[in-house]
Design a protein that fits this description.
Elements: E1 21-24, H1 36-48, H2 50-58, E2 63-64, E3 67-68, E4 80-83, E5 98-102, E6 106-111, H3 128-136, E7 142-143, E8 152-158, H4 164-172, E9 177-185, E10 194-201, E11 210-212, E12 218-228, E13 231-238, H5 245-252, E14 280-288, E15 295-299
Parallel strand pairs: 8-14
Antiparallel strand pairs: 1-4, 2-3, 5-6, 6-8, 7-8, 9-13, 9-14, 10-11, 10-12, 12-13, 14-15
Helix pairs in contact: 1-2
Length: about 300
């Protein structure tokens, strides 16, 4: 088995806080591609069209370790190529990012509603990562975990890429205690506090996750903090981290979180209404720092309108 060598550093700088795409040309046992151009067209024409690939080659947008890529270069498996995608037009998210804590290793950010954590799909420069890299001048910054785009609250980011694995391991091993707050209808018939355990599955391409029979893979503790006029404020403590877990479990109790565009029913697609955020907030993060060994606790400064 051939050992893959470490990828060289990118010759392209970040653009608007976003890393360039790195491509390692794959093995070609069937000799499908004679030139680099043929491979890039096969790889990207379906997404951006053959003409756009040709334009990017002509303008030097594809770059190797020794400069712009010549599309007529013979195909060489293992060669690295970098480029910046064309960024989609994005509607600015009109909310600032708070910084709860910062030192030489971590930044604990207070993410607003509607802002994606990482560049993906139609959200690229209007993301927590890209904006913080620009605002704090920290090009290596990376989140140690993800927070749903519609959810506000705490995201732990790592300043140096070499430290990221240690903090990611905390989340993987469930060594981080996370506490959320939500505002949703109040129903006195729902006995609280309660620990909800179920199996949640989400199909690729389907917006809503669902609870199904089978082995339990999701667990949440739900407590009522206050209520008035048919609305309640809740503390939510997830034990696991399935996609949309808290939203699914609250909906399953008949207490869908206010302004949820997916649960109990998917809202028709259209322009986002920034005045109607999902009433879900990642309130606290608690863990033992893997480098200092000290116990730390961070609390969001954001608030949700509602009782209590």
């Amino acid at each position: 088995m051939r050992r893959r060598t470490k990828a060289p550093s990118s010759p392209l700088p970040q653009r608007d806080g976003v890393d360039p795409v790195r491509v390692r040309l794959p093995e070609d046992p069937e000799r499908l591609w004679k030139t680099v151009r043929e491979h890039l067209i096969d790889r990207y024409a379906g997404a951006i069209g053959t003409e756009r690939v040709e334009e990017m080659l002509k303008s030097g947008r594809f770059v190797g370790t020794d400069g712009p890529v010549n599309g007529d270069d013979p195909y060489a498996a293992g060669r690295y190529v970098w480029f910046h995608r064309d960024f989609p037009a994005e509607r600015p998210v009109p909310f600032g990012i708070g910084v709860v804590y910062r030192d030489e290793r971590i930044v604990v950010a207070d993410k607003p509603h509607f802002l994606a954590t990482m560049p993906r799909g139609r959200h690229v420069t209007e993301t927590l990562l890209a904006r913080l890299r620009r605002e704090l001048a920290l090009p290596e910054l990376q989140p140690a975990h993800r927070l749903d785009r519609l959810t506000a609250g705490l995201v732990l980011c790592v300043v140096r890429s070499g430290d990221r694995g240690a903090y990611q391991t905390l989340f993987r091993d469930r060594a981080v205690r996370k506490e959320y707050e939500a505002v949703a209808p109040h129903d006195p018939a729902v006995a609280l506090p309660v620990t909800v355990r179920s199996r949640i599955e989400k199909e690729r391409g389907v917006m809503a996750a669902r609870e199904v029979p089978g082995e339990i893979n999701a667990e949440s503790r739900i407590e009522l903090l206050a209520h008035a006029d048919g609305i309640g404020r809740y503390r939510l403590v997830p034990v696991t981290g399935r996609t949309h877990q808290l939203r699914v479990h609250m909906n399953g109790l008949g207490l869908p979180i206010l302004n949820d565009p997916i649960y109990p029913r998917v809202r028709p697609d259209g322009p986002e209404d920034f005045s109607r955020p999902l009433h879900l907030l990642a309130r606290t993060l608690e863990f033992t720092d893997p480098f200092t060994g000290g116990a730390v606790r961070f609390e969001s400064r954001s608030t949700l309108s509602g009782p209590g």
